[in-house]
Amino acid sequence: MHNGTRIKISNVSFYYGNLKVLSNISMDIYKNQVTAIIGPSGCGKSTFIRLLNRMNDLITKSKLEGSIYLDNKDIYKAKEDVVAIRRLVGMVFQKPNPFPKSIYENVAYGLEVNNIKDKAFIEHRVIESLRKAALWNEVKDRLHDSALKLSGGQQQRLCIARCLAVDPEVILFDEPCASLDPVSTKKIEELILELKSDYTIVIVTHNMQQAARVSDFTAFLYLGELVEFGHTEKIFTVPKNKKTEEYLTGKFG
Amino acid sequence: MRIKETIYKWIFTIFAFASLLFLVGIVVVLFKEGLPIFKHVKLVAFLFGKSWYPTYEPAEYGILPLIMGSVWVTVGAVLVSVPLGVGSALYLDELASYKQKAILKPIIEILASIPSIVFGFFGMVIVAPLIQRIFKLPVGLCALTASIILGVMAIPTICSLAEDALSYVPRSFREASFALGANRWQTLTKVVVPAAGSGVSTSIILGVSRIVGETMTVLMVSGGAAMIPVSFFQPVRPMTATIAAEMGEAAMGSAHYHALFAIGLILFLVTLVFNIIAELISRRFRIKLGLNR
Ligand SMILES: Nc1ncnc2c1ncn2[C@@H]1O[C@H](COP(=O)(O)OP(=O)(O)O)[C@@H](O)[C@H]1O
Ligand SMILES: [Mg+2]
Q1: Which residues on chain A are in Cβ contact (under 8 Å) with B172?
Q2: Mean pLDDT calculated for residue range B205-226
Q3: CB-ligand 1 contact for A42 (6 Å cutoff)
Q4: Is B156 a residue whose pLDDT tops 60?
Q5: Of A55, A131, A129, which is closest to residue A94 (Cα–Cα)?
Q6: Of A58, A86, A100, the CB nearest to B180
Q7: Would you call B134 exposed, middle or buried from its count of C-beta atoms within 10 A (0-12, 13-18, 19+)?
Q8: Of A108, A117, A137, B67, which is most buried, counting CB atoms within 10 Å of its CB?
């Protein structure tokens, strides 16, 4: 059914100060599969996904218990290089957040900060990433225009291209369509399905249909606990847990 | 209740318009009292004349030495205040912990509330003798001393406005940068500072405009010689200091009196231009970061 574990989450709890927002979560994220994280807002989905590329390191007074392994290496062990982890595990955010720079500069940014100087290589990678993100045809004549002139959906695909440019192996999406119209949402979903063959994908969404459409595995978080995790079809058709069933049938959330 | 409200409304409207009235009044007086100097001396000779001898017979009204005095002191003060002001803003915004920020920010703001005469006094008593000894000068009151003191005085303006500009940069830009594997330094120099750039330049321009207009301190520490300076170690007589020093002795309605008003007019125009530029840039900045919607 899947080809091996990419990320192993083992007994993870997380605190903001004294507030415990994740408790004792264990699950696996499989290679070249799309794993959806669903749950009502405030249940800890963003917190959870941001642990996978150590984005929560930026928050002072936070505390992690348990371990997260990427290819059997504990990413929170002191000797692991945060930069290397973030290159391997890219992230696309809820609100499109292109830099106030040109389209080209946005995509090239990740290469530049990783000390790649070869101009020809950068250009090649920028074009390739824009193609993969299904944005190339729309922007090829205006690569040097400000990225802020693009529509919301185009900006989000630009953020995906920017993420692909550093050649990650895992991509985290935190509600990538939350601020987009249905047409743009559809494009992003198609894109996610295409990217699956080359990348391992984790997507947070509060849209259950979206989880059903794009994911292979689904994890249902509720009040910081992992209530149920398994194959998406199973979760959506024969949920084991009563809470999951209630959430999926819209009884709360 | 309703009558009360109407009365309040009118009172505050009058207050609001009072400052406009004062502004117009000041501008009118500056022009009315300044322009008559051009009956005695041509505009070009006034602006570019190399001698300022307003009390000689015949008097000479060339303000180039005063303009150059202001320019030297301003440039010097910018060299002091910009690195320190912007640097401390960057430190406060990016590196300081909550605690450090809670202590440092008020301290920098207290610096802004020290009366300029205190700065002047400090300059005369402490800085000038020090500069004199270090550089073995005949006098310590010179362009360098004035630059240092004025530079320090402009730090709070620059620092607090630049810090505002930096803090307006959305967190999402920083997050995007970190998520791509950038470190703090790269995020700061490649994303945060360019995004805050025009806000930071606004802070610098307003700081400079404060330096150009500062009077009391300059009068006390700049040395007062109306010569075109060729080094920072020479005493200078900037425009503001000239007005402050000479207004008391110039007979009302005399050419000297009008000349001093004309200098005031030029100062007013220069600071006005600075402030307009600052406003234009900061408007563009807010649009760029999407803060104006
Ligand atoms: N930086 C933070 N500091 C303190 N509490 C936070 C922070 N971020 C999120 N929280 C809290 O943690 C809980 C989970 O938030 P989050 O992970 O954003 O949930 P979700 O993405 O599922 O909506 C919420 O109660 C939220 O208020
Ligand atoms: Mg969230």
Answers
A1: 93, 95, 97
A2: 89
A3: yes
A4: yes
A5: A55
A6: A86
A7: exposed
A8: A108
